[in-house]
């Protein structure tokens, strides 16, 4: 399983490095709640895409990913109501199925130098996530995960 985890972490690193360059960040606003912010989401794939069979629990993969990412990034847990709202808005265009992995980046402004990177995995029991404060200059740290 460690072999597959390294492949998955490597893929996350590649995707994250390309994430800000290839996806358009979108503006979201809820006047009733007084929330507004920017976010973008990328579908990374399913457990099967990463070589995991149905016997592997997605929550276990998230635990291992969390342990790896904590080594390089400051974890934010739990998310605030505002952060949940913004992630939910960004995820609203995706059909979420158990075993699917997503990467969402949220920020308070379009040109923010720092934001929150949220890794989301949908499970049969609900979604699991881990979230980390990242800045543009932090992307090199993804290489340190390997």
Quick description:
The protein is of the alpha+beta class and 146 residues long. It contains 3 helices and 6 strands. It has a 6-stranded antiparallel sheet, sandwiched between helices.
List the helices and strands and how they pair.
Layout: H1 2-22, E1 26-30, E2 35-46, H2 58-70, E3 74-75, H3 81-91, E4 100-107, E5 114-123, E6 126-135
Antiparallel strand pairs: 1-2, 2-4, 3-6, 4-5, 5-6
Characterise the protein shown here.
The chain has 146 residues and is an alpha+beta fold. It is 31% helix and 32% strand. The chain has three helices and six strands, in the order αββαβαβββ. It is globular, with a radius of gyration of 15 Å. The chain starts with a helix and ends in an 11-residue tail after the last strand.
Strands of the biggest beta sheet: in what spatial order? 1-2-4-5-6-3
Counting DSSP E segments of at least 2 residues, the number of strands comes to 6
Average pLDDT level: 78
Indicate the low-confidence ranges by residue numbers: 17-21
**Number of DSSP helical runs:** 3
Going by helix content, strand content and strand pairing, the class is alpha+beta
How far is it from the N-terminal to the C-terminal residue, by CA? 16 Å
Notable traits:
146 residues, alpha+beta, 6-stranded antiparallel beta sheet, 3 helices, 6 strands
């Amino acid at each position: 399983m460690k072999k597959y985890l390294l492949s998955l972490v490597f893929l996350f690193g590649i995707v994250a490095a390309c994430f800000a360059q290839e996806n358009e960040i979108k503006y979201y606003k809820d006047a009733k709640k007084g929330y507004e912010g920017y976010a973008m989401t990328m579908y990374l794939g399913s457990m099967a895409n990463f070589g995991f069979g149905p016997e592997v629990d997605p929550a276990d993969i998230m635990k291992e990913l969390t342990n790896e990412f904590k080594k390089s990034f400051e974890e934010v847990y739990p998310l605030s109501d505002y952060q949940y709202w913004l992630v939910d808005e960004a995820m609203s265009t995706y059909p979420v199925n158990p075993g699917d992995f997503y990467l969402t980046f949220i920020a308070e402004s379009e040109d923010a130098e720092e934001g929150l990177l949220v890794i989301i995995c949908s499970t049969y029991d609900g979604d699991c996530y881990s979230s980390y404060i990242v800045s543009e200059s932090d992307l090199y740290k993804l290489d340190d995960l390997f």
